[in-house]
Specification:
Helix content: 25-40%
Shape: elongated
CATH topology of the largest domain: UDP-N-acetylmuramoyl-L-alanine:D-glutamate ligase
Oligomer: single chain
Family: Belongs to the NnrD/CARKD family. Belongs to the NnrE/AIBP family.
CATH superfamily of the largest domain: Ribokinase
Subunit structure: Homotetramer.
Bound molecules: ligand NPW, adenosine-5'-diphosphate, potassium ion
Protein name: Bifunctional NAD(P)H-hydrate repair enzyme
EC number: 4.2.1.136, 5.1.99.6
Radius of gyration: 26 Å
Pfam families: Carb_kinase, YjeF_N
Structural class: alpha/beta
Length: about 500
Amino acid sequence: MKILTPKQTRELDQFTIDHEPIASIDLMERAAQKCMDWIISNIDASSYYIFCGTGNNGGDGLAITRMLDPFPYNKKAFLIHFSDKLSKDAKLNYKHLKKTDAACLSQIDFLEDIDFNQIEPDAIIIDAIFGSGLNRPVEGLAKLVIEKINELPNKVISIDIPSGLMAEYDESYAGSPAIIKADITLTFQTPKLSFLLPENSQFVGHWHVLDIGLLAEYIEEQKETHVLVEKDYITSIYKHRLQHSHKGNYGHALLIAGCYGKMGAAILASKGCLKAGVGLLTVHVPHWGYNIIQSSVPEAMASIDRSEMIFTEFPELNGFNAIAIGPGLNKKKNSVVAFENMLSKIEHHSLVVDADGLNILSENKHLLNKLPQQTILTPHPKEFERLAGSWKNDMHRLKILKDFCQQYQVITVLKGAYTVTCMPDGRCYFNTTGNPGMATAGSGDVLTGIILALLAQNYPPDKAATLAVYLHGKAGDKALLQESKESLIASDIIRNLGNAFKSLN
Ligand SMILES: NC(=O)C1=CN([C@@H]2O[C@H](COP(=O)(O)OP(=O)(O)OC[C@H]3O[C@@H](n4cnc5c(N)ncnc54)[C@H](OP(=O)(O)O)[C@@H]3O)[C@@H](O)[C@H]2O)[C@@H](O)CC1
Ligand SMILES: Nc1ncnc2c1ncn2[C@@H]1O[C@H](COP(=O)(O)OP(=O)(O)O)[C@@H](O)[C@H]1O
Ligand SMILES: [K+]
């Protein structure tokens, strides 16, 4: 699903109004009805307090209040009068609600006009103060109301976007002084970019996209800049195995991993790779790790370093079509030299760099220029900061990520919730699978193994990265059916890779 900018969202609304065609007031009615349908199906409450602004978001809130009328709920709508400029459609809905139930509607000029004590703790608050039209930090009356709502124990449902949050912002934006902390956000047609950034999860809560019938024609024409990766996209890139295939069809991968004390990383990445369908896997380990890898991963072949403890050399690269380097490596000088040598020998191979491979790059930045085009880097945020520098806010981090990928022509998988895979041309793919149980030692090593396996199977690097990230998260979600978020460990992700692949069929 494409994520649209605020400008594109406005254009999409207008395109739908012009081409469906539909009057804007009817579109608002449709949006409000979709919210109502969702609320009635999912929420069990007897009282609703609807806080409405003066723009079209407030118009949605006023329409929702009217639609609650046939139901046996207590309801009260507050028009937060922070501006005299009521939008045309908000005005129509204001009049309409006055006719339906004038008593439930109050205009609020001062915070004291609202008796917050009357709001029962189990009542639902609907936040329709600001939507996508917010264009500056919230001040004055609206700020006071938002702060007060955030102090209440009530469940809050935000319409379109939590009031005070912007769909997109730049690095100079230090956050609005007041933003609604929603439990649920019901957003229209496509999610907003800000929903996917860690710093905003405290405001957005669980978000749901409601299809209000805005025209797909317009969305299809837009460039794929920010994409939410869901099952339909993944099934479109997934290649089924052919009946008459043999292991030679699925590539020969080389994994360079492990050092004294960190052989576990090599084992986890190897297993992730094998369980993601590679034909053949060779693991290059220090001498000391030979017995460990052979007995823990009998399916893999071993290539043994002359060094007892660390990575100092690599096997002949001909014969491998994909290489991963980094899990459980180390950053000693001899390893850096071997890494640099290897980069100079790479020709047609696809490459993944993780963990200490990334730390070597951070400490030897000239090596970034030697990476083959479309190399996949898989940093967690700390590793990315070491690679590319620090950021002022998460939207700025996204900009740094795009600049970095464009400068070095690499693909970067920035890990976390909504892992973002950024392409050399700056396109960003946000993953939707995975859970906090995956924040556990070795989980990233498994991902490296999966990416390696898909590269060896000849997936183009951009598709290998997005598919691997999706499958890794899906395996984590499947693991959660038997485990808790605390008990889930990296081996559980490996064990559930089969279930993750099956979910694509
Ligand atoms: N278009 C459609 O077809 C559909 C739209 N829909 C709904 O419309 C919503 C977008 O509506 P919107 O554009 O009217 O913006 P909204 O956020 O309600 O109001 C902002 C207003 O407040 C003002 N303002 C801004 N910042 C401010 C601040 N800090 N402090 C004080 N004032 C501030 C600003 O005016 P300004 O003062 O800048 O002139 C603006 O007029 C969207 O989220 C969705 O819910 C749905 O019904 C589906 C169909
Ligand atoms: N809250 C979360 N939601 C979804 N995925 C997560 C979450 N926390 C961590 N993960 C995933 O778990 C993996 C952790 O990787 P990493 O930090 O490199 O771990 P390690 O270095 O221990 O192997 C990443 O793929 C990341 O996306
Ligand atoms: K809102």
